[in-house]
Structure formats: C-alpha cells, structure tokens
Amino acid sequence: MSSSRPPSASKITKPPSRPPSASQNTNVSTGPRISSASSRLRATQNNLSFEVNAEQKAQDRIRTQSDDEREQFIINVFHETFGDAIRNNEDAFRSRFRKMAENPFNFYRGSAVLFYYDLKIDQDPWIARNQLAGNIFIHGDLHAENFGTYMDSHGILHFDVNDFDEGYCGPFTWDVKRLLASLYIVAYTKGFSNDTIRQILTRYADTYVKQVYEFCNSSKDQLPLTLKQTTGKIQLLLKETRIQSHVEHLAKMTVIENYERKFKRSIYTDVDAQLYKDINDAFQTIYLESIPEPKKNIQGPSGSNVSCSIKDIVKCSSKGIGSAGAESYTILLEGPTEALENDIVLSMKQALPSAVSCVVKNSELEKYFEHHGLRTVLCSYAMQASTPQWLGYTTLHGKHYLVDEVSTHSKGLSWSNINDLKDILEVVTYLGKVTAKIHCVADSDCTNLPKNLSSLPLSIIPRDTETTIRDAIGGQDDEFINDMVNFGMTYGKQVYRDHRIFSDAVINDRISRLEKKE
C-alpha cells in the first residue's frame, strides 16, 4: 500500500479518543482453548479503529460533497489503496477501471475499498450500543452477485455466499448495508419504483433479523439451503448445477493428446520449468498441509484416495474486477482413478489484502491475518455451512495464494432471469437467511481445522455472535430495519452519482495517473 496520507473528506469530524462502552450482555463463548492471545484480542475489541458516533450518518455527509470534492476523495482512496499496484501493472488496472466504468453495478463491485472509507466515520447506533458486534467475521464484499452454489466435501450441493476474498472482522452492519445498496442497484436497473425497491430491501432486512433471532432461540448447527430446503429460483439454480457434467466441464479447459489430458494452450499460457517446479513444491508442502486430514482422505469410486499428483500447470488471467494485476495459475490433478474423466482442476490465485483492512486496524487480529490466503480460508471456515474439499492456501515466491477447485458444481446467482417482484422477494428472503447464517453459524468442520488454523484461539471464530447481534439491535427491530433500508436506498443512489463522476475521471485520465497530492 502507498505511504501517502489517507483520503480526506469535507466536514469529517475527528473520532473521539475514547469510544463508548460496549454492552456487557454479549455471552460470547470462547470454548476450551482460551489463550493470552485471545484475551488480548478481546481487549482490543473495545477500541474501534473507526467512528460509530459521528455527528452525521456517512451517507448524509457524502451528499454534502460537491462533485469535485467527491471525485478527489475517490481518487485519493484509489491512490492510497492501489497506487503502487497501478504503477507496477498499469494495463491491468486500466482494464479494471474500464470494466468499472461500464455500469454502476460493476463500479460498485470494484470499489469496495471506497465503501469502507465512506463508512470509516459514521453514525452507527447499533455498533455504538455493543462494540463487540463491530468485531465479528464479515464477508467484506457482500453484494447481490456474490451468492451461488457449491458442493461441500460430503457431496451435498448448497446455496450460499461465495468469494471470501475480502473476508475480515468488522461490524455486522457493514455486510447488511453493502448488500442492501447492491439490491437497490439491481432493482433500479429493472425499472422498479422507489416504493417497490424499499419493499424489496425491507424484506431482506426483516428476514435477516428474524433469522438471527431464530439462531438465538434454537439450535444453530447449520442452516443448509439445499435442494430439499429451497424453492423457486434458488432451487432451480441448484437443479441446474446438479445436472452439469464433469466431463463437459473438463472439455472446456483441457484436451486429450497422446492419451493424456492437458490444458488448452489456446486459452492458457505455459509456465517455464523452474516455475512449474516452484508451484509443485508450494502445492505439495504448504498447500497440502493446509487441508484437514478428513478432507484429504475422501475416496473416489474405486475406493482409492485422490493422488494429489500434478499433471499440468498453466498461467491464466484473473477474471474478477477486483483481481487486477493478481497472478493466477490453474493446476490439473490426477483424479481418484486412472480414468481421465475424473481429473480435478484447481485454481491457485494470488490472495490480496482485504478492503476492510484499510479501515479496521487491530494489531492482534493482523497477526493471524498476515497471510491473505490463510485469512480467506479462515473466513470461509467461519462463515460457510460446510467448506469445499480442496480449499486451502500456499505461498509462492513470497506471495500469498488461495487454492480451491474449479468446480463443475459451482454456479453463481444471476439476476438476468429474476424479474418478477414475487421471485425477487423470494430470492432476497433467502439472501437474508444466508447473511444471518454467515454471521452466526461456525463451520461444522471446525474440529478438523487445517494445521495452521487449529492453533488459533477459538475466540477468533466466535461461537455466539447471534446474541452479540441481538444485543446490538437491542429490541429495536423496526428502527434497525428502517436504518439499514434507508442506507441502502441512499447509498444505492450515491453509487449512480459516483459511477458518473468516476467514469468522467477515467475518460479524462484523471485516475490512471493517480498523482500524489502533497
């Protein structure tokens, strides 16, 4: 990250030196593995690095900024966050910025760091009431397209949140607000009125609160959203995922030559012999150690374990808007049998710092999150009902990498065919349940954590965050829902303004240079 001074905004009040005390009725269970490290971590949770008692709400402060002030703030944020990376790979970021300029939703997806700088100084009575609710695992980039299907290590298809690259610890309200603003963009794009959009956003927020309370009052072992527990568009998505063919999936990426499978060089790039060896070493050592033993020992149809023998490695371009300049490799593994039809494809992509970490500063937490691949894996374990079999991390040439399967049975939620209000309301109901789940339910595999995760104090993965969130809401359900929805409506409109300002800056080359302001 650049060493330039942090972004400034007009009319921002200085945070008080001592934040208000948190509620004492949080009932956070730390379990049997208490350590001095976990005690220190909890102590720091009463000293937030962001303001929650500002004179104005963040969205109201932003609206008072002129277009010129807002443009300069956006440029400052991007310079502070991406300045060095842009100078190292201008072409990648030029492509990223052009994708962001295409439409408001793309801009929103690619500007998570702006969202958190906006919320760094806010009036958030819910976190002010219980500051422990400002330090739970959050997704970090919870927007309307970061949901989809995946198959867990037991072969069960789930509908859940995906892409934990921005996962971190922070206020639960940030996830709720970020998703609500994205739902505004989706609904506005589809031509719904403000009243109808408010109805959609209210359904999501209301479902979230009810599901949190349900976790408080009953067993929260899991909230599986599988073929049997879903209906409508979400069940259809799971059914479409179920019928996808692994052989056809492999055929999109590979060819068979001389009776052996290899990647298509027409769409991928070769790696040289030394890089091939280095990737293989990183895979066979750090990565395999990051996989829990029960997941490594899952057998194929022949009764044999997957060999973890690498057959081919290629370099590929990172597709995500937020992955500009990140290195990415694709690995072909021998499957559980010698038959070519069950070979396995893994993605090994560079893990970058979370956008949330630009605002949340916690020295104890940062020790555990120093490796961005490990952080992403830990956040996945904390928030998913059950994690994928091949999820792990490694290090290559001093850079952090996340490894996961390029799965046949992974399909993202698309809004292109979700247009009727009835369908949208049903879908956002599921999104509300899933959001509550990721905040409240720890992974059922937590007793089988990878070696480098099992040494973490158990308080890093909170056991009773549902009561923490409940105490933050404090029985003011309607007020909380209205507050969240009002933010979603206001900030969603702000995204359209920001997109216009950003696009003009891109066209006139005022962002790509990112010249430092002294």
Automatic annotation (TrEMBL):
<dbReference type="InterPro" id="IPR018721">
    <property type="entry name" value="DUF2252"/>
</dbReference>
<feature type="compositionally biased region" description="Polar residues">
    <location>
        <begin position="1"/>
        <end position="11"/>
    </location>
</feature>
<feature type="region of interest" description="Disordered">
    <location>
        <begin position="1"/>
        <end position="42"/>
    </location>
</feature>
<dbReference type="InterPro" id="IPR011009">
    <property type="entry name" value="Kinase-like_dom_sf"/>
</dbReference>
<dbReference type="Pfam" id="PF10009">
    <property type="entry name" value="DUF2252"/>
</dbReference>
<feature type="compositionally biased region" description="Polar residues">
    <location>
        <begin position="20"/>
        <end position="42"/>
    </location>
</feature>
<protein>
    <recommendedName>
        <fullName>DUF2252 domain-containing protein</fullName>
    </recommendedName>
</protein>
